[in-house]
Write the structure tokens for this entry.
Amino acid sequence: MGKCENLKDDDLKIFIYDTTLRDGTQAEGISLTVQDKLKITRKLDELQIHYIEGGWPGSNPKDLEYFKQVQAIPLKHAKIAAFGATRKAGVHVTEDANIKALLAAETPCIAIFGKSWDHHVLTALNTTLEENLKMIRESVHYLKSQKREVIYDAEHFFDGFKANPDYALAALKAAAEGGADWIVLCDTNGGSLPGEVEQIFLKVRRAIKVPLGIHAHNDGELAVANSIAAVKCGALQVQGTINGFGERCGNANLCSVIPNLQLKMGFSCLDPEALCRLTEVSHYVSEIANMAPQNNQPFVGASAFAHKGGVHVSAVLKDPATYEHLDPELVGNKRRVLVSELGGTSNLYYKARELNFDLAQGNPQTKEIIKQIKELEYQGYQFEGAEASLELLLRRAFGQYREFFTLESLKLFVQKQANNGDVISSEAIIKMRVGDQIMHTAAEGNGPVNAVDNALRKALEGFYPSLKEMHLVDYKVRVLDGKDGTGAKVRVLIESADAAGSWSTVGVSENIIEASWQALTDSMNYALLRKLSSCRKDAKKLLNEKGPG
């Protein structure tokens, strides 16, 4: 496990400390309500995270309310931690407002940070080096006297150690003398390198007997590497956030730290069954934070185990280990094979097998379908980002699909009146055929595409009530060749979702309404296809349960 590693077997358990609800919310663009934080707390507890830092009760009313409400949640695995600072300079610890707020939060664990860098003590705190040591020692001691587990976060420790190692160690010793249960070394500015972290951690480990932890920021894109380096050298607690959310460039990404430690280095972080929920939790937190999941995120991203090149796919068909560093199911992800102009027959064979198509090797139809896909992608279609449209295309090609509805006619009216300010009205009049019935209806919308969507739903929901369950998640338009100006071809990507999951569809045309129509109708057809497939599975299961009688 590296030159630092001399741990005993009983040291192989690593405690995970999640600070998404505090440090993570300091990321630009993220703001969580109390209810948001409670939802994430439940999900992190299901993941079996050991510590959940809920916020700073002395900083804002929202965090105070969170600590009140979280006490009503019956957590099975996690301890809730309140976060705050040491007492202020010149203030008695029992009279410090921040210390009082930490105790009032009534959490079993309290994390407090203090200064380890002499430059910060003199410049930011504007106090003496000796007073800072007293602030650390007295704050930790007082919180311990109140029967709390105390985690001391040594802020700016690595910068402080590089500037003045004797004082940085003195700050840690003050926390140890106060009775800290944990001492966490923080790379607050995120500028340290893994080699530096290793060297410093070894020196600290020889001097400090209190269990150590690591809190790394990602300003050098090394937070995960620095966290792993610290564990190799004796850290037993790792602090970080889901998806690496955090101020500036973020914190150590627990979605990468945990599987690296557990699946590659043999440490025990989470129960293996809980680890299989990592991808789900990653996406859940992104959704609650209203942040789009990063497809290329390691381990949990949609593209983490996606294969596009034909050579890659051919090898993966023989043995996934040829192009995958671990089984995606271990972290709750899945393998994806993308069918595009860069792919070949291997991609299509894999996709056909995934959809339970009986595709024989050397089938001329296979080559024809690949030729069709490559031609469509040449025209601007992008099936790697619209797998629902790809599945519909394949099912149509293999005769395993029937249309749920067909268009008879569509008329659109868009009106802007000079005396009506910026208001533009849109109305769609649509005639649809479902079986032998014709549905003729109209609907308005806040734009022409929205009007078409509303009219489609109005026409079809009477026949297919399940369409009421699906909703639009995202709508993207990209101009494919700007040289043609407003007459340029556009690609529309639509992401839709229902209770069972999400899917994406694509449409391409010089007319944005036509491109949107293709993507919209594919989305609805796919939703109905999934519903039909689900009903058939339920019926088959019921039949098997009842038996032949």
In short: The CA atoms of residues 405 and 434 lie 5 Å apart. The longest strand covers residues 406-416. Residues 545-549 have pLDDT under 50 and may be disordered. The two ends are 61 Å apart (CA to CA).
